[in-house]
Amino acid sequence: MSSNSRSTDFIVRRPDDWHLHLRDGAMLKAVLPHTSAHFGRAIIMPNLVPPVVKTADAEAYRARIMAALPEGHDFEPLMTLYLTEGTDPADVELGAKYGLIKALKLYPAGATTNSDSGVRSIEAVYPVLEKMSELDVPLLVHGEVTDADIDIFDREAVFIDRVLSPIRERFPSLRIVMEHVTTEDGVNFVKGAGDRTAATITTHHLIINRNTILVGGIKPHYFCLPVAKREKHRLALRAAATSGDARFFLGTDSAPHMKSAKECACGCAGVFNASNTVNCLAHVFEQDGALDKLEAFMSLNGPAFYGLAANEARIRLFKGDDPLSYETRVSVDGDEVVVFDPGFPLFWRYEAVNA
Ligand code: NCD
Ligand code: ZN
Q1: Per CATH, which fold does 9-353 belong to?
Q2: Counting C-beta atoms within 10 Å of the first and last residue's C-beta, which end of the chain has fewer, N or C?
Q3: Is the peptide bond before 323 cis (omega within 30 degrees of 0)?
Q4: pLDDT > 70 in the chain, percent
Q5: Which of 225, 229, 271, 340 to mutate to test the pocket of ligand 1 (most atoms within 8 A of CB)?
Q6: Which ligand 1 atom lies nearest to the CA of residue 114?
Q7: pTM of the shown model
């Protein structure tokens, strides 16, 4: 569709977000428009408190999302269930056959924000994984072990060896998405694991490395899980995202927390990037001479992996002469959420293309 020669103006399919946290209540209402303005669909993470564990919970949550959607926004939430050791394969079957449940999310217990109900022993969920293979419902994994003796920067690589590889081997037909991959090890695992294994990559992990978080003072708004790694890993993620390889696609992991909960002695993990992701990605892909691969990464590879059609709507991306000015804060309930700062001005904009 586009090519590098058309480097300042080109049309692509409307993007989707294959990993998103929308929360609930006032936060949902405040952040949802920042996704639905830009994305056609999003895979909605189930780590609410309490988590979305049953089909009935997902149905109710979907209704709350639709009620919060601004008028005129065309957006479809794709619902997921939070996998627990108590998940009933029959409930998964019900939700999947009904067309509501698009995936299940595996959080190792204690791995990240609101993951206390996560899985302690992977064998305990084998019957659910069996059912998911049969129904072709993807398993989305938060790929980090939680053992206290494993260094936080090694948790993804150790998870691949101890948990992911064994699941991959035991359930060969199960679709697996390694969510928010952050290491070269993860990228290599996905490349070597056949076409039923994919990975989402976040906007921020393409832009920041661990120095961004720690050098010159601690920057809580760049802290998320999995934590950004050293530069060689960021470069591996960039290479994977900009390659056009169908197994890599956008999952923003946009994860809003109140500013007060991030700027404190024990700050929450999560980066809120829904509102400027498309602009950031165009910048990144241009830097890497890969604007012709942007559509694959944000609009084509994800739906293909999930067995869905790409969005019919199109957007036109174009580069302005002046830096884009955009809201750097979203107000919520007397507090605010800070928008991801890529650390450089953004020149790329986009507009909807009328059919
Ligand atoms: C996410 C959140 O806040 O819900 N945080 C994050 O740092 N990514 C949870 C998650 O996806 O790990
Ligand atoms: Zn997430």
Answers
A1: TIM Barrel (3.20.20)
A2: C
A3: no
A4: 98
A5: 225
A6: 4
A7: 0.97
